[in-house]
Design goal:
The protein is mainly beta. The protein has 3 helices and 14 strands.
Length: 200
């Protein structure tokens, strides 16, 4: 199962639709089985736009003042035997996983924690837990009109491949993000390395 992870789309801003930034986000979402949005959607039509590609589940962000059946403050899912929790804000994310679980999920054990809010990408495996923040595809590192980052999880029984993907062609002097990937098999960390770029 391929799960796309996005966050902090913050539309409308200087743009009203993700299409105005170019085709990269749509290209990324096209092959998804499920889209997880970690909040700060701002307008529900963004979720409708995403849903043309796959079903959408959302964690409410601090800028999400609308009601939508797809959105809850905290989302917990079971996918192929992996427990995945999603919340908008868990700052500071570098705290011990036990603290993140206690604050965001009532101490419930999880295999994957997904958060947003910071607009900075994060992917790491620690304390037997994958921690993922996909950054923002539209406001990377809080820069307007800049193609940013997204994430995905390829999930099967006993295996997760997680990746941060840079949309477009980032340059170090513009937004110095790093595409990264992690592989977990049989509940054990296997490897990490550079990720991929999606270019026009």
């Amino acid at each position: 199962m391929r799960v796309a992870v996005i966050s902090d789309t913050h539309l409308p801003s200087l743009i009203r639709s993700p299409d105005e930034l170019g085709p990269e986000l749509a290209t990324f979402l096209t092959d998804s089985d499920l889209i997880l949005h970690a909040g700060d959607v701002v307008r529900p039509y963004v979720l409708d736009w995403c849903e043309q590609f796959a079903p959408v589940i959302v964690a409410r962000g601090n800028n999400d003042s609308f009601e939508d059946d797809r959105m809850q403050p905290v989302q917990v899912l079971d996918i192929e035997g992996w427990r995945i929790g999603m919340i908008h804000e868990l700052r500071p994310e570098e705290r011990p996983v036990a603290e993140l679980l206690a604050e965001g999920f009532g101490g419930e054990p999880l295999d994957v924690i997904i958060a947003g809010d910071t607009h900075y990408e994060r992917i790491e495996y620690r304390d037997n837990t994958l921690v993922l923040n996909s950054g923002s595809p539209t406001l990377a590192h809080h820069r307007e009109m800049t193609l940013g980052t997204v994430g995905f999880l390829e999930i099967s029984d006993g295996r997760i491949h997680a990746e941060i993907v840079a949309l477009g062609n980032p340059t170090a002097d513009l937004v110095p993000w790093r595409p990264r990937h992690l592989l977990i098999e049989d509940r054990r960390f296997v490897c990490e390395g550079p990720g991929a770029l999606i270019t026009p």
